[in-house]
Design goal:
Layout: E1 5-8, H1 13-24, H2 41-51, E2 55-58, H3 62-66, H4 73-92, E3 96-102, H5 125-140, E4 144-149, E5 151-153, H6 160-168, E6 175-177, E7 181-182, E8 184-186, H7 187-202, E9 209-213, H8 221-232, E10 244-246, E11 260-261, H9 266-272, H10 279-293
Helix pairs in contact: 1-7, 2-4, 4-5, 8-10
Pathway: Carbohydrate biosynthesis; dTDP-L-rhamnose biosynthesis
Family: Belongs to the dTDP-4-dehydrorhamnose reductase family.
Function: Catalyzes the reduction of dTDP-6-deoxy-L-lyxo-4-hexulose to yield dTDP-L-rhamnose.
Length: 294
């Protein structure tokens, strides 16, 4: 790898997966420790003025965007300003910016898979903030890759998988939507995709733009929950045997979570040659790491 790579967010689950995967191929990342209150416009300015990497992978707000149950509008506004400043810095110093985004930019009103050509109409505060961040990156920093991911699953105790497994260890119903659809995407698979994109950008291929990536085989939260329980039971006794079906409309997050969140991944295949991997194949390693770390 000729490019010097700066990774913001090296301490979170996706950042750690990317560092692990890079180490296997002797690809190293500058992964600075964030300030006590997290990366903001001022600290990013100082960091990039001093280090001048060739590419920045911005996973600084990964947990808030992909794993947290909710994020305050104040916090999202601060993150928007920080990404806008990061885009300005990347443009000023001629750096490449790889910025993650999410299926949440769509409203979930269509049953067919969303492609990069579909117009985003986000529902909740998080989706709206991500859409504004995307627009800001496009307008300010031409040398960008925006990667929209599906339902990301990681091994963090407070993440969506961790919350689900904590509930499964207690008596009671574990309600999961049976009429909501999306693509589960293990964090190791997302890291593989980021690394594959970086390798081709390292060859000076100007493949800027927006891309979708999500695990192979769309499913429902109910079916995903059952697959997780079946696999987790090999590692830990669980009280809940099966999740209980619930209508999307009855879910507490129905107002901001798209009912249909399936992503079409043809563009990333045709551009970078990246094929979607089956999410089921990634569950054993993900759960093994979750319980070992827990």
């Amino acid at each position: 790898m000729r490019m010097r790579l700066m990774l913001l967010g090296g301490g979170n689950a996706l950042g750690q997966a990317l560092i692990r995967l890079g180490a296997e191929e002797d690809i190293n990342f500058l992964a600075p420790r964030p300030p006590q209150d997290g990366w903001d416009a001022a600290s990013l300015t100082q960091l990039l003025d001093e280090t001048r990497p060739d590419a920045v992978i911005n996973l600084a707000y990964y947990f808030d965007w992909f794993q947290s149950q909710s994020v305050s509008d104040t916090r999202l506004a601060e993150q928007e300003r920080a990404v806008e400043r990061l885009s300005e810095l990347c443009q000023h110093h001629n750096m490449t910016l790889l910025q993650p985004s999410s299926y949440r930019v769509f409203d979930g009103s269509r049953a067919t898979a969303y492609s990069e050509k579909d117009e985003p109409v986000p529902l909740g505060l998080r989706g709206q903030a991500l859409w504004r961040i995307e627009q800001s990156v496009r307008a300010i920093c031409p040398q960008h890759v925006l990667l929209r991911f599906g339902w990301l699953l990681d091994d963090s105790p407070q993440g969506s998988l961790g919350r689900f497994l904590a509930q499964a260890e207690k008596p009671g119903e574990l309600l999961m939507a049976d009429d909501r659809r999306g693509n589960p995407t293990p964090v190791d698979d997302a890291a593989r995709v980021i690394l594959s994109v970086l390798k081709q950008l390292d060859c000076a291929a100007p493949l800027w733009g927006t891309y979708h990536y999500a695990g192979h085989e769309a499913t429902t939260p109910l079916a995903l929950g059952q697959a997780i329980l079946d696999e987790a039971r090999h590692l830990r006794p669980l009280v809940v045997q099966a999740p209980t079906p619930q209508a999307h409309a009855a879910c507490p997050d129905a107002a901001e979570e798209p009912q249909h969140a399936v992503l079409a991944c043809k563009k990333i295949l045709h551009t970078f040659g990246i094929k979607p991997r089956a999410w089921r194949a990634g569950l054993p390693a993900l759960l093994d790491r979750f319980y070992r770390h827990g």
